[in-house]
Amino acid sequence: MLDQVAGIVRVRMFYLQLQYKCNMRCKTCFHGKLLDAPDQFTLAEACAILDHFREVYQLEAVTLLGGEPLLYPHIEDVAAYAKRIGLRVEICTNGHRGFRSRIQAVAPWLDKFRVSLDGLKDRHDVIRQAGSFEGAIEMVDLVRELGITTGATMTVTEGNLDDVVPLARLLEAHGVEELKLHALRLVGNAAENPDLEVVDAARYAGLHQQIEDARLGIRIVYDSDLSPEPTGEQCSNLVADGWLDRIESDPRGGLTVSCKAVGRDVNAFRWDKTTQLINYEPRANDEFAVGIPDVVYATAKAG
Hints:
- The chain is α/β, with parallel strands linked by helices.
- It has a single domain (2-299), classed as Aldolase class I (TIM Barrel, Alpha-Beta Barrel), CATH 3.20.20.
- Helix content is 26%, strand content 21%.
- The chain contains eight helices and 13 strands.
- Strands 1, 2, 3, 4, 5, 6, 7, 8, 9, 10, 11, 12 and 13 form a 13-stranded mixed beta sheet that branches.
- Helix 2 (43-57) links the parallel strand 1 (10-17) and strand 2.
- Helix 2 (43-57) runs parallel beside helix 3 (75-84).
- The longest helix has 15 residues, at 43-57.
- The chain is globular.
């Protein structure tokens, strides 16, 4: 179906939101009220959608997401199955220290463990919950001891721009290899916290300069809203010859191509959990109809 409608014949990365359930209510979360929704993939449904994308679209990798993926009851089984069918397996978690045993259980199947951080300790804990920063760093250290590559994801806000470089240095000291920077999008919980938005995009130029001057050893990866490089108007997530860099599924089966469309309920494709097929359900405001451009990651120049 993706090939017939959108010319997509191959997908590199599948972002699989296993459930909405989460143990935090972060101010930047795009899920918003859906965090209380019961929707989730069963184990069989999760395996089926991975099978489909592996067989039909030559899928290479999966990132397991939530909500909080480590609260998903079958997280080890999904990770093990994904690895068994030949996928590279990553997970992105809030890294709560209460997940130590779950992390150890899923570790044998992981290629990369990524934590979400929102700045240094004080700013992070205000956005998430008290003690969550130190817990996340503890879990990073645990995973490194288990021999797994570690990374971090940070949503850049008005309040944490100046935390990026010191956070990168701290993560580098803990052996983290990559820090991925996202721009805040005012959907979900973020819509109720508009003061977090970086209104003046010119401020990002100062961030780029700080990063360049810092000569960091950790790899910094920008999304296109933050990139110093200009981006085009088209959805550049769709690369040459029908290759899609990434696609995301929500717990209800909604498939979203553009990162900028995630959380906005504007998907034109849906995975039917019963028939195990992709349905095309075009709408006047879907991501293809309104031409939402995609976030394309670009790696910052090495120092």
